[in-house]
Amino acid sequence: MAMGKYSRVDGRRPSNYCSTVTIVVFVAFCLVGVWMLMSSSVVPVQNAELSSKENTSNGKRTVNRSVSKQFEDSSGALQEDETKQDVNDLPRKEYGNAVEDNQEEKIIKESTEENVEFQNQAEENQEENRFKDISGERNESQEEPKTEDENDRNGNGEDEQLKVGDRESNSEAKETEKDGGMSKDEQTESEERSGENKFGSSESENSSEEEQSADETQQSAENNGGSQEKDQNSNEIFPSGAQSEILSESTTQTGAWSTQAAESQNEKMNQQSSKSEVQNGYRWKLCNATAGPDYIPCLDNWQAIRKLTSTKHYEHRERHCPDEAPTCLVPLPEGYKRSVKWPKSREKIWYYNVPHTKLAEVKGHQNWVKFTGEYLTFPGGGTQFKNGALHYIDFIQKSVPEIAWGKRSHVILDVGCGVASFGGYLFERDVLAMSFAPKDEHEAQVQFALERGIPAILSVMGTKRLPFPSSVFDLVHCARCRVPWHIEGGKLLLELNRVLRPGGYFVWSATPVYQKLPEDVGIWQEMSRLTKSMCWKRVSITKDKLNAVGAAIYQKPTSNECYDKRARNEPPLCEESDDPNAAWNVPLQACLHRVPIDESERGSHWPEQWPQRLTNPPYWLNSQVGVYGKSAPEDFAADYTHWKTIVSKSYLNGMGIDWSSVRNVMDMKAVYGGFAAALKDLKVWVMNIVPIDSPDTLPIIYERGLFGMYHDWCESF
């Protein structure tokens, strides 16, 4: 409120009137003083309302100049009715009118209150130290030089040298401004709260030499019980021109520090801007490839394929991943529909999901696939089993009963699978088949298999090892798989020997077995020589009269005795340094790996029969430490228990998954295969992936009757 200069107004009251009033008010003051002393302990706030009243009377010359000077620069809080009309809420052009209106209201105050406050000074000096300590603690630790902007707003920048109290008050206000960053509405509310504390005027009276008024914006931020005071003159309260413009535009940019509110707001804006750039600046594109929906980055990399110096070993069918993984979306085929559910999908799929008819034209007579209206249908036939896969499967077991589908033989490899009908019908015999074929002129035959709900991957017997560990498949099957096993020292057949379990079977159903054409006879002779030198035992040659085909079945040895007795070391034994389990991008070699014979080595014994092998730790884990730090058997059991609990309580019941519509699942980091084992009772199959930079636990997965492969997740699958 207006003070100081506005309190020095000419004109005096009659002396006898002043004396009378002084005596009367003195008595009243004594009563008030006693009450203030009693209540001061619970009113730790300061208020200059009384001080304001004494300085608003017209004709305050009754006090001598020294007393007038003492009150000249003291600060006081706005009264409640005055605070409600905050200066910041007024237009700049109305500042002057607001000053005059307020001044007129204040002038009508009686000068008797001035005398009351003056005489009250002596008694309230006792309270001075306590109030100064309350507000001074912050001032002593936070005192800073007053900036030129602040001097201008207080109207004291050029009039006189700052007093100690002025610096302390302004420093306190500045600190509050930095910490609080209050808006104008908040300042007004703070002033109103301060104005209601009517009994804190002693500090403003007794420390006027030390605490000058700060600008209105800074002082209103003191909402913790500190000084809530106004400047003495209208220039200090209502700055005009450039000063008022600065106040109106910003109250948080003065000083060397920004406020938390400003910093947080800027960060929010930056984050929103970043999100907007991501959302608006980049959109996922469809892959621009001639393969369209059949695009596979590592198999359709024509830049790399064109640079190949030779393709006679099917190098062009192998993986050639681009240096930079593509960041595009492979489009869906036009007209794509939700896949037909298993087991109906084994017999038919939507044509528009895999819109290729060439295979139906070429292989339709062999009952591979037929085009029927909006469906592609699969009668269950194949090149070697035109009359159905189930009959052919039973024919194999009759030829060698020890195969024992679903018991002894549970995990098999089907080479050159076509549309994977063989593997699809092996589910009827509780057998899990890993089927693979290349991406060749038959157009997406593996895509047909996957759409049918049958496990299959794209791969080729070329120049590199298959992405599987050694000695993991119970049986390997090839039905007219078009692989020249006998050439180049039997390199390709030796790769099958690597992945076939000791004592496992190789089923070869091809024309050289049962036809007498010169070419077939030549191949048969070469295969007979090769298999004998590899110590494979031919256990059966049988003809299937229904399908007019035959099959030769071989068994891998379970010891190294035959290898050591060979007259010629052809094919040679692999070097001891050659790791048979190394399979990621390792070139093929025409050599034989010795059979493990140590009782603690994997491969020295046949696994337990299915399904016992699923839940029991493999015998060869006893001497190893598990992935999680315990002994391997404990790790294995704990992992299985963990996944059984998670699957039963979350995946099957708590995640909202309709498992009747789920057929194939991929575990991208399978470890022991516990997740797949926990899904055993569902009609799903799980592709267990062991990343190449993770512990090599894939042999354990195969040992328990599951399957999977190695993969580098920096490349496409």
UniProtKB/TrEMBL annotation:
Pfam families: Methyltransf_29. Residues 81-95, 127-145, 152-196 have a biased composition (Basic and acidic residues). Keywords: Glycoprotein, Membrane, Methyltransferase, Signal-anchor, Transferase, Transmembrane, Transmembrane helix. Coiled coil: none annotated. It is an enzyme of class 2 (transferase). Residues 50-277 are annotated as: Disordered. Residues 50-69, 217-227, 234-277 have a biased composition (Polar residues). One of its GO terms (cellular component) is endosome. It is found in: Endomembrane system; Membrane. GO terms for biological process: methylation. The chain crosses the membrane at residues 21-38. Its EC number is 2.1.1.-. One of its GO terms (molecular function) is methyltransferase activity. It is a single-pass type II membrane protein. InterPro entries: Put_SAM_MeTrfase (IPR004159), SAM-dependent_MTases_sf (IPR029063). Belongs to the methyltransferase superfamily. This is Methyltransferase. It comes from Bixa orellana (Lipstick tree).
